[in-house]
Specification:
Layout lengths: L6 E6 L7 H11 L3 E6 L3 H4 L2 H8 L4 E2 L8 H11 L2 E7 L1 H9 L5 H8 L4 E5 L3 H5 L1 H12 L3 E2 L3 E4 L5 E5 L3 H13 L8 E6 L4 E2 L5 E2 L6 H12 L3 E6 L11 E4 L3 H12 L4 E4 L6 E3 L19 E3 L3 H7 L6 E8 L3 H11 L4 E6 L11 E2 L2 E4 L2 E4 L3 E2 H20 L1
Parallel strand pairs: 1-2, 1-4, 2-3, 4-5, 5-6, 9-12, 9-14, 12-13, 14-17, 17-18
Antiparallel strand pairs: 7-8, 10-11, 15-16, 18-20, 19-22, 20-21
Helix pairs in contact: 1-3, 1-9, 4-6, 5-8, 10-14
The chain binds cytidine-5'-triphosphate.
C-alpha cells in the first residue's frame, strides 16, 4: 500500500442487502482505495466473511468468540487507519446504537473510536425506516456530521414497497469518494452565509414573506464547512435542517438580518448573501389582529427596508470577498450587473427564476456568475454543485485580492 493510498473501513451489518457490500468494496478498490471490512455477527449469516476476506485481501474483523486475543487493540488500530468509515448496509440497529452511544460489538466499538468521517447507507423495511425512533436517530447522526446516504424507494425484499432500499451501490461509492477527496481548501477562512426569507409582521398573527426555501444558502454553508471553513449561517425561518458543524444565527426581519450581519461581517473573509430579505415592511404593525371591514379594501402602507448587502458593501475591506444573489424574472444580466455595482459586491450569482429547474424551492439551479469584468454561465445543476462552484470562485477572488 502506497503512503498516499486512502483507507476505507467498510462496516457490513445484517440485512439482505449485505451482499451488495461486495460490489461497493470492488467499486472503492477500482478507485484506488484500500478497503478493510468489519462485519457484525448477523451480517455473517448473509455473506461469509471469507468472501470479504478474499475480495479485500485483508482479514475480516468479525465479532465472534474465536476472535484473536489482540482484538481490543486491533479494532482501535482499524479505527485510526480509516480515512473514511462507511457502513453499508446500515441496519436500524447500528444506526440506533451510533445515535445513542452504544458500543457492544466489534463494529459499534470501532466506529465509535474513529475520528475519520463516517458515512452510513441505511437499508431496512419501510416501516422501520419511517419509525420515528429511526428518523430521530438519523437526524442525530446528521447533526453530528455523519453523512447519511438516504435509502431509495422501491420493492423491498420483505415484499413491501417504499423507502428503505439500499441506495444504488454506484451512488454510495461516489458519495464515499467525494468525501475522501474533499479538499480542505477553505481551512482557516471565515465564511458567513445568509439564507432564507424574512418575515415582516402586519399584526400579531400575520406577516409578509417570500418563497425563499433557504436551500441555496444551506448548500453553500454545508459546502464551505466540508471544505474546512469556519462557517456562520445567518438563517431566516425555513423548514430544512442546518448542516452540521456550522454556527447558526437566526433572524426574522430584514432589520434583524442587518443587525446580525453587522455584528459578524467585519471578521469574515468571504460573505455570501443568499437570503431573500423583504424590501418592504409595514409602516405600522397593528397591535391587535386586523379585522375585516364590511367589504372595504384593506390598505397596507409599506415602507422600504434597509438594503443589507448595500449597507455591508460600504464597509467592505480590500481583503474581503462579498458575493450577492440576484433572483430575476427579466433582463437578468443587466439587473444583476446593476446590483453588483450598487452593492459593492465582488460577484453576483444571477438566476432567472422563471426557468424550469431554477429558483425557489427546487433542488437545482441555473446560475450565471457575474463579476465586474467577467461572466460565466453554468448549466443546470444541483444547488450543492452550484455551491461548490460559487465557493471555488469566491476563494480564487480572495486569493487574487491577497496576492
Ligand atoms: N438584499 C439585501 N437587502 C435587501 C434586499 C436584497 O441585502 N433589502 C440582497 C440579497 O440578499 C441579494 C441581493 O441583495 O444578495 C439582491 O437581492 P434582490 O432581491 O435580487 O435585489 P433588490 O436589491 O431587492 O432589487 P429588486 O428587488 O428591485 O430586484
Amino acid at each position: 500500500m502506497s503512503s498516499k493510498q486512502k483507507c476505507v473501513v467498510l462496516g457490513v451489518t445484517g440485512g439482505i442487502a449485505a451482499y451488495k457490500a461486495c460490489e461497493i468494496l470492488r467499486l472503492l478498490q477500482k478507485r484506488g482505495m484500500d478497503v478493510f471490512v468489519v462485519m457484525t455477527k448477523n451480517a455473517c449469516r448473509f455473506v461469509a466473511p471469507l468472501t470479504f476476506e478474499t475480495l479485500s485481501g485483508h482479514p475480516v474483523a468479525v465479532d465472534t468468540f474465536e476472535r484473536p486475543a489482540t482484538w481490543e487493540v486491533e479494532h482501535i488500530a482499524l479505527a485510526k487507519r480509516a480515512d473514511l468509515f462507511l457502513i453499508a448496509p446500515a441496519t436500524a440497529n447500528i444506526i440506533g446504537k451510533m445515535a445513542n452511544g452504544i458500543a457492544d460489538d466489534m463494529l459499534s466499538t470501532t466506529v465509535m473510536a474513529t475520528r475519520a468521517p463516517v458515512m452510513v447507507a441505511p437499508a431496512m423495511n419501510t416501516g422501520m425506516w419511517d419509525n420515528p425512533a429511526t428518523q430521530e436517530n438519523v437526524k442525530k447522526l446528521i447533526a453530528r456530521g455523519v453523512h447519511v446516504v438516504t435509502p431509495a424507494s422501491g420493492h423491498l425484499a420483505c415484499g413491501d414497497s417504499g423507502a428503505g432500499k439500499l441506495e444504488d451501490v454506484n451512488v454510495i461509492a461516489e458519495r464515499a469518494i467525494a468525501v475522501l477527496e474533499q479538499e480542505k481548501d477553505l481551512a482557516g477562512l471565515r465564511v458567513l452565509v445568509t439564507a432564507g426569507p424574512t418575515r415582516e409582521a402586519l399584526d400579531p398573527v400575520r406577516y409578509v414573506s417570500n418563497r425563499s426555501s433557504g436551500k441555496m444558502g444551506y448548500a453553500l454553508a454545508e459546502n464551505a464547512a466540508m471544505r474546512g471553513a469556519d462557517v456562520t449561517l445567518l438563517t431566516g425561518p425555513v423548514s430544512i435542517e442546518p448542516p452540521a458543524g456550522v454556527t447558526v444565527v437566526k433572524f426574522t426581519t430584514t432589520q434583524d438580518l442587518l443587525d446580525r450581519a453587522l455584528e459578524h461581517a467585519g471578521s469574515q473573509d468571504i460573505l455570501i448573501q443568499a437570503a431573500a430579505p423583504a424590501d418592504y415592511r409595514a409602516e405600522e404593525v397593528a397591535p391587535q389582529k386586523i379585522k375585516k371591514n364590511d367589504g372595504e379594501p384593506l390598505v397596507l402602507r409599506l415602507v422600504e427596508n434597509p438594503d443589507v448587502a448595500a449597507t455591508l458593501g460600504k464597509a467592505k475591506r480590500d481583503d474581503q470577498v462579498f458575493v450577492g444573489f440576484a433572483a430575476e424574472t427579466n433582463d437578468v444580466t443587466a439587473h444583476a450587473q446593476g446590483k453588483l455595482v450598487k452593492k459593492n459586491l465582488d460577484m453576483i450569482v444571477a438566476n432567472d427564476v422563471t426557468r424550469p429547474g431554477a429558483g425557489f424551492d427546487v433542488d437545482t439551479n441555473i446560475v450565471t456568475l457575474i463579476e465586474p469584468d467577467a461572466m460565466r454561465a453554468l448549466p443546470l445543476m444541483t444547488k450543492t454543485e452550484a455551491a461548490g462552484h460559487i465557493l471555488t470562485r469566491a476563494k480564487e477572488l480572495l486569493d487574487a485580492k491577497r496576492a
